[in-house]
Amino acid sequence: MTVTEINWSEEVVPDSRFTVRFLPFDATVEVASGTTLLDAAVEAGLPVKASCGGRGTCGDCLLSINSGSYRARPSAGLSKNLVAQGYALACTTRVTDNLTVHLPQFQELSIRSVADSGFFNAHKDEVSGYYGPASFSETVADVIPSATDKNIFGIACDVGTTTVVVQLVDLRTGRVLSTASGYNHQLKCGDDIISRIHYAEKPGHLRELNTLIVATINRLIQKNLETIHGTFLDIYYASVSGNTTMTYLLLNMDPGNIRKDPYAVGLNRTRLAVSRNLGLKMNPEAMVLCAPAVGSYVGGDITAGLLCTPLLRDAEKVSLFIDVGTNGELVLGNRDWMVTCACSAGPAFEGSGTKCGMPAAAGAIERIGLDNGSVAYTVIGGGKPKGLCGSGLVDLLSGLFLQGYIDRGGKLSEEKAADRLVETERGGGFLIEKAERSYWEKDLVITENDIANLIRTKGAVFSACSLLLKNVGLAFENLDAVYIAGGFGQYLNIENAISIGLFPDLPRDRFHYLGNSSLLGAYLVLISDKNRDLVNETAGRMTYIELNTEPDYMNEYTGSLFLPHTDMDLFPSVKRIWNQ
Amino acid sequence: MALSGLEIFKLLPKTNCKECGVPTCMAFAMKLAQKKADLGECPHASEEARAALGAASKPPIRLVKIGVGARALEVGNETVMFRHEKTFFHQTGLAIRLNASEDEETLVSKIREIENYTVDRVGEQLKADLLFLSQDEAGKDAFLKLIGFAKEHSTKGVILDSRDRESLTAGLEILKADRPAVFLSGDVSDGDFELAKNRSVSLIITGESFESLESRVEKAKKAGIEDLILNLKAPDLGRQFQNNTILRRSALKKNYEPFGYPLLTMVEAENGPDRMAKASVGLCKYASIIVLPRYDKALLYTLFALRQNIFTDPQKPIQVEPKLYSIGDPTPESPVFLTTNFSLTFFLVSGEIENSGTSAHLVVCDCEGQSVLTAWAAGKFTGETIAKFIREIKLEEQVKTRRLIIPGFVSQISGDLEEKLPGWEILVGCQEAADIPSFVKSVSIA
Amino acid sequence: MGFEIPIEKNSGKIAEVTIGATSEQGGTRSNTITIGGSTALPFLFFEGEHPNRPALAMEVFDKVPAKYPEALLDYYRDVIDKPADMAKKCVEQYGAELISVRLDETHPEKGDRSADEAADVVRQVLDSVKVPLIITGHSHYEKINVVMKKVCEVTAGENCLINYVETDNYKTIAAACMAYNHSIVAQSPIDVNMAKQLNILLSDMNFPSEKIVIDPLTGALGYGLEYTYSIMERIRNDGLAGDSMLAFPMIINPGYESSRVKEVRVTEEEYPDWGDMELRSAYWETATAMSLLSAGSELIVMYHPKAMETVKKHVDELYSAESGN
Ligand code: SF4
C-alpha cells in the first residue's frame, strides 16, 4: 500500500482506468484515474454519506484501504494517526491504482443480541412454540435420507432489512451448531424497506435484489459450514423468517403491491419452496419454508417471533409484543385475538439516522449516564468509543432530558448545556466525548437533529402502541406483559426507555426482553411441524391495522413527539422525577 | 353507551370465517365499534349479540326527509356534539323564504332563479335545498298559486308556512307526491296532525320555551306523528345558540326523546352581513335547516363554503378534482407546478403561487386526497403515476414549458420522473407551500 | 318525566389575560383589555361564567401588503401607508378595541427593514392611539428575534401582546417578553398536541400563564377553516376539562387570512355565481370570524370595517344570554 500525499492540487490525468472493489458488499466499479472514492462509491450505488457535501470536513465518508495506491489530501476530518492506519476520506482520495476498500460502517458484525435468548432459555415451558427434540414434517420427510450415519442439517434464517443471521442446526438433535451474521447486501440499494420496494420497480432490479439476498444468505451458510467443516449437501431444510418485503425478494416476487394495498400479500400462509429454485446453497432438493406474513409491514419475522413468547397461550392475560427495528412492529392480544400494526419508526435506534449512532458492535457506547456535567459510559469491547448503539442512545436521551440539557421538545438549553454545546456540520449539538478520547479522533456529538430523529422514532412506536390499545378499547394498565424483541437486547435500560416515552409507564417487571425472536422463531419452526401449524394459525388470527388510514394516528403521533409525552400524566413515574 | 372493539368481539363467534368480508372477527368488531359496519353482515351472530348491539345503536336524532328524488333533503341522525368526535352526517339544508303576498311575476322569476342557481366548489355542485313558502298576509288563492309555481318551476323540497288549515289541506293536495314539510307556528292540535296523517309530510313544531316545545312534540307523538322538526324560538342570537345546544345535548347525551329531532333555525335580519353572521352561527351550532329571508348569491356562496367546511368528514380529507389548474393568467410558457389533490395541499399551494405574483399552471394529480408525503409513501405519487396522469391530461398540448416543479418533499422521485417523462426537466421545489414565493424569487422558474 | 336543562360543569377555567397597561400600571394606554376567564363552552351562560367578551382588534402595516384587496382599499386608501393614521381610523371610526401592528417589512425578503425602524413604527402607533397593541411578526427566526427584542424594549411597560412564538423559535422572544413585561402569542400549526407542547415549554421557562394567548393558526373560510374550527373546539374542551396547559384564550386572524383568498378579490362579472364582490368580501370575513367565535376564540383580528361592525354587534347579541333565560 502506497499513499501519495503530495500535490493533491496537481490534476491526475484521467488517462487510465482502474477497478475499485468495495467490501463487505463485493461491489466493484471501474473508474478513470483521478476519480474520488466518493464518486466511485456513489457510482457503485453504495450508501456512503457525506454531510459536508464532500469538502473533507465532516468525516462521514471514512473508509479503509486494504490494497492499492492512491492519492489523498490531508483534511480536517481525519487525523494523522488514522491515516497511518490506512483510513482515508472517500471525498479527498483519488484513485491511481486498482483498489480494495473497506467501509468500516459496514464491518462484519457481531451483533450482540443474536446469542441472547435469555428469556427463552428461562421460560422454555411457557412459550407458545413447541420446544423439544426435532420432529420432521411429512413434507420434508421425502428428501431427508434415512441412513443414520449421514448428517442432517437445517438452517434457521432471519432475513432483516439491515442484517441477516443464519444458524446451522443439527436436525436430529435440534442443537445449534454455528451462527453467522452479516449485513444484507441489498443495503446498497437503499436503507429501508420503502426504498428497496422503490428500487425494485425498475427493470432488472428485482432480479438484482433477489440475487443480493441469496448471495448474502449463501455466504453466511458457507461461513457456518466452514466452522464445522460440513457440506451444503447435508442441509435439507431451511426455515426463513423475514419481513414481508424481504420474503418477497427472496422468493423473487414483485414487492410493488406491498405499499399499495396492505392486504395484497399472498404470503398469509407459510410458503414452501425448493432450494434449487431459489439458488440457495443447500441440498438442491432441500425445502425452504418462509413464515407467513399478516400485512404489508407485518411479516414472518413477527409471526415466527410470537412463538418465543407466551402470548399465543394466554387466555385472559393481554400482552404486547414490540419489535423495534427499522420498522417498529407491534402485536397486542392473546390466544383469542390479536391486533397488529407497523410504524415507520426509522432506523434511529439501529444506529443509522443519527450522526453518532451505530449498531451494537465493538466500539459502541451501550450505556451512558450524565451527572451534572460529567459523562460516564461503557463501550462494547472496551477502548475508545466510536459511537452509540440503541441502548446508549436511549440512555443519553433520557439523561439529557431528565438533567435539563434539553427541553421537553428536544431543544438544547443554551444555559444548562453551555460548556458542552458545539456547532457541527449538521447544526448545534451536545458534546459526548472530545476528539482526543474518541476512536475516530473527532468530537462525538449528538445534534439537535439527531435528538429530533430519536424523538420521532420513539414517538412512532409509542403512538402505534396507544392506537392499538384504543382500537380494541383497552388502556395501558390492561397490559399484563410487554415483550421486547429486536436489536436492543437486554442492554436496554427500561427505566430510561420509559422516561423518554418509548415504552408505557408500567410496573417494570412486566417487561421482558426476547433478543432476536425472529431467528429464534425461525429455529422453532425449523425443528417441529407443530410450530409450523402454529405459526400459520397465528397469522390467520391476527388483525392488521394500517396506521396511515387510521384517523386518530396523527393525533397520537404528534402527542408522542415530546418528552416523555405531551400528556405527562401518562407517565406518572417520570412525572415524579421531573417535578423534583 | 357505545361498546368497545374488545367488548363486541367477545359477543362474536370468534371463528374468523371471513364471511363478513374482513379477515377476522376482531377486525369486524373494530368496524362495528367505529360504526363502519352493520351486525347483519355477520351471518353467525348470536341473538345475544344482536340484542346487546341493537341497544347501543338506535339513532338518538331522527332522520327526516323533505322532498323527493335526487334533490330530497335528509336531515338528522346526528350522533355527536363536535365534528371532531366523529363527523356531522347530514349537512344543513338551506331554505329560501318566498312570501305569497309578493306579485306573481317576481315569485316565478325568483323560483326559477333559485332553481337554476348551482355553483361548483372543490368539485361539488352546490345549491339551495328548499323553498320556504309563506302564506304571510295573503289569501288562500295566492298561497296556492305560489305552491303551484314551486311545483311547476322547481324540483326542490318545499316547506309550507301557514296556519290556515284549509289552505294547507289544498296545498298539500297539490304536493301530494312531493313529501313537503309544514311549519306550524304556535300551539298545535289534532287538526294539525290530521294534515300529516295518510300523507308523507313532516311537521315542524315550534315552541316559545322548552316546555311548550316539549308538550307540543308529545302531542304530535301521541297522535302517531314521528317525522318532526323542531324550531325553538329565540329572541336573539345568544339565546338561539344556547337553545340549540341544549336541545342537541338533551337528545344525544340524555336520550331525551321529545327533543330527538332535527332543528330548524330562522335567520331574520335587516341586512346581508347580519344575516351572514346569524346563519354562520346557526350552521355551526346545530341547525339542520336554516331559513334565509331572501335570495342573495354572495351569501349563499359563502354559506356553501362554510357548510362544506363544517360538514366534511374530519377523518376523510376533502379532495379537489385532479386536473390542470390555471393560477392567475398563465401563458403556455408559464411555469408548471405539481402537487396532489388533497384539498388543503391544493389550497395552500395554489394560494402561495398566487401570492408569489407569478402566473402558473398547477398539475393536481389524483392521489385519493392524500397529502404529498402520504401519497408518496403509499405509492400514489410516483414517477410512474405522475407521468401517466400528465399524459392523460395531455399536458404537452396545453403548455410549451418543459420544466416541471415538484414538491421538495419528494425530491427522490425526480430521477424516475425524468426518465418517465422524456423531454421534461424536473426541478425540485421547496418543501413547504409557504416558501413558494421566495422559491419563485430565488430561481428563474420559467 | 319533565325536561331539565342538561348542565355540564367543567373543572377547568380559561386563563384571564390582560393586554395593555394604563399609566397607573406603568404604561400609557387609556384602558386595558382582558380576555378569557370562561368556565364553560363559548356563550353557554347557563352552565358557567364568561366574565370577558371576546375582543376585536384591527390591523395596520409597516408596508402596504402586496395583494391588498380592492374591496378593502376603498375604506383605507387615504391611510393604508400611514400606520399611525390607519390605527386612528380603525379605533375611532371602526371601533377597534386593540390595534395589531404587522411588521412584515422587517422580513429579509420583504424589505429587510431594521429593528430600529420597526420600533419607530410601533412608537408612532403607540402615540396615535390609546388602545392596547398587538405586535405581529413573521417566521424568519433570526430577524424577527432581533426585531421583537427591540420592540419589547422600546414598549417596555405597555404590556403589548407579542405575536408570535412557535416551538422552533420561542426562547429569545419569550425571554424578552418576560424582561419587559409583555404578553405572548403561542402559535402552533393546527394541532392540539403542538399547542400544548409549546405552552408547556413556555411554562417550563416560567413564563407566566396569565400572559399566554394561543394562536391555533387560522384557516380562512374554504381554506382549511374546518381544521382550525375543530382544533379550537378540542383545545377548548380539553382546557375546560382541566388541562391547564390548554386553558388559554385563543387569537384568530380572519382579516388577514380572508384578505388573501381569491373569493374576496374577484368581481361578480368574472364569477357571476359568486355574487356581489363588496358584499362577498365582508361576508367571507364575517363567516370566518363568527364560526371561529362559536369554536371558542376570544381575540379576533379583523380587516373589513363592515365585517368588524357585524361581528361586534353579534358578539353583543351572543352576550345577551348573559342575563339568563
Ligand atoms: S362473519 Fe362473523 S364469524 Fe365470520 S369472521 Fe366475520 S364476524 Fe367472525
Write a brief structural summary.
Chain A is built from 16 helices and 26 strands. With about 575 residues, chain A is of the alpha/beta class. Chain A folds into four domains: about 5-105, Beta-grasp domain (Ubiquitin-like (UB roll)); about 120-310 and about 520-525, Domain of unknown function (DUF4445) (Nucleotidyltransferase, domain 5, 2-Layer Sandwich), CATH 3.30.420; about 320-345 and about 455-515 and about 545-580, 2-Layer Sandwich (Nucleotidyltransferase, domain 5), CATH 3.30.420.40; about 355-445, no CATH class.
State the CATH architecture of the largest domain in chain B.
Alpha-Beta Barrel
Helix-strand makeup class of chain B: alpha/beta
Number of contiguous helices of chain B: 17
Main sheet summary of chain B: 8 strands, parallel
Instruction: Give a quick account of the main beta sheet of chain C: strands, pairing sense, barrel closure.
Output: 8 strands, parallel
What ranges of chain C have pLDDT less than 50 throughout 5 or more consecutive residues? none
Number of domains of chain C: 1
CATH class of chain C: Alpha Beta
Judging from the principal axes of the Cα atoms, what is the shape of chain C? globular
Q: Percent helix among the residues of chain C?
A: 25-40%
The string of secondary-structure elements of chain C, in order, is EEEHHEHEHEHEHEHEHHEH
Q: Tell me, what is the CATH class of the largest domain in chain B? A: Alpha Beta
Radius of gyration of chain C, taken over Cα atoms and rounded to an integer in Å: 19 Å
- At the fold tier of CATH, the topology name of chain C is TIM Barrel
CATH superfamily of the largest domain in chain B: Dihydropteroate synthase-like
Strand order of the largest sheet of chain C: 8-7-6-5-4-3-10-9
Structural class of chain C: alpha/beta
Q: Classify the beta-strand content of chain B into a percent band.
A: 15-25%
Unreliable stretches of chain B = none
Bound molecules: iron/sulfur cluster
Question: In total, how many domains does the architecture of chain B comprise?
Answer: 3
